[in-house]
Design brief:
The protein is an alpha+beta fold. It has one domain: Alpha-Beta Plaits. Helices cover 25% and strands 36% of the residues. The chain contains 2 helices and 6 strands; from the N terminus they run E-H-E-E-E-E-H-E. The strands form 2 sheets. The chain has a 4-stranded antiparallel sheet with strand order 2-5-1-6, with helices on one face. Strands 3-4 form a two-stranded antiparallel ribbon. The longest helix is centred in the N-terminal third of the chain and has 17 residues. The chain is flat.
Length: 104
């Protein structure tokens, strides 16, 4: 079955600690509800350091990648439906990408 990355974009902003806890509880319920569809339940990520031909820079952008969950789904439409049920989208964004096997 195809795999898809749910890329967590941005830092969630909550109006209170209670709101953050509520979102987290609903997020964990959503994540646990994925069952076998969750190939990798989550990979949190810290601020990036960019390395390119011009050098190295630290740029903690508001739209940075903050985590990744890998799921299996029939197709992109099914992966998007999984993402649409994630409470994270109430406070930030998810990018959904298909993961392809690299062949040499």
């Amino acid at each position: 079955m195809p795999q898809f990355g749910l890329l967590y974009v941005g830092e969630p902003q909550f109006s209170s600690e209670e709101e953050g806890q509520d979102n987290y509880q609903r997020y964990m319920a959503w994540l646990n509800g994925l069952g076998d569809a969750a190939v990798n339940r989550g990979i949190p990520m810290g601020p990036p350091t960019r390395v390119d031909a011009s050098g190295v820079s630290s740029d903690d952008r508001a739209d940075r990648l903050t985590g990744l969950t890998i799921v299996e789904a029939e197709d992109m439409a099914a992966a998007i439906e999984i993402a649409k049920r994630c409470p994270y989208i109430e406070v930030a964004a998810l990018d959904v990408v298909q993961i392809f096997e690299m062949t040499l």
